[in-house]
Amino acid sequence: MLIGAALALGFVGVTWVALEWQEVAVLRTRAPDGAVRTTRVWVARHDGALWIEAPTPERHWYRNVLTHPRVELVLDGQTRHYRAATVDQPAGHERIRSLLREKYGWADVWVGMLQDTSRSLAVRLEETGP
User: Fold this and answer.
1) pLDDT of residue 88
2) Is the whole-model pTM more than 0.70?
3) Is the peptide bond before 57 cis (omega within 30 degrees of 0)?
């Protein structure tokens, strides 16, 4: 019993470190009913833009972006406004997977064992101002 509890606690601890230890941003999207939704996301910089990943097309925040592409991102304590655009498949998927693997290393591998990202989508954020 104690061994099982210790293993479960260790699993939760490693997962938390993998998800939260490195740079994490808060994405604010607008739901169809107008409500603002927040989601914690990993972010990568490439070609003068920020990139985030929707692990599956069914993610609520991604569906919000399709309807309302203007989003806010809180990163390093600063809130900025962006226009979100999905990058075409399969190049977008390959790009975001490469960027996140390079930046987050072992954490990306760990999370990849927990979340199937084979259908993930790359979302490029272009800063727009307020």
Assistant:
1) 85
2) yes
3) no
Q: How many CB atoms lie within 10 A of CB 95?
A: 19
Residue 107 vs residues 5, 33, 66, 104: alpha-carbon distances, Å = 23, 34, 28, 6
- Tokens representing 125 are 């954020």
The answer to whether 37 touches 27, Cβ cutoff 8 Å, is: no
Question: How many angstroms separate the CA atoms of 36 and 48, rounded?
Answer: 27
What DSSP string describes 77-122? TEEEEEEEEEPPTTHHHHHHHHHHHHHHTHHHHHHHHHS--TT-EE
Candidates 36, 31, 22; CA nearest to 72 is 36
End-to-end CA distance of the chain: give it in Å, rounded.
54
> CB pairs under 8 A, 24+ apart, for 31-37?
31/60, 31/64, 32/64, 32/67, 37/61, 37/64
Give the 3-state secondary structure of residue 58. coil
Residue 12, pLDDT above cutoff 50: no
d(CA 130, CA 126): 12
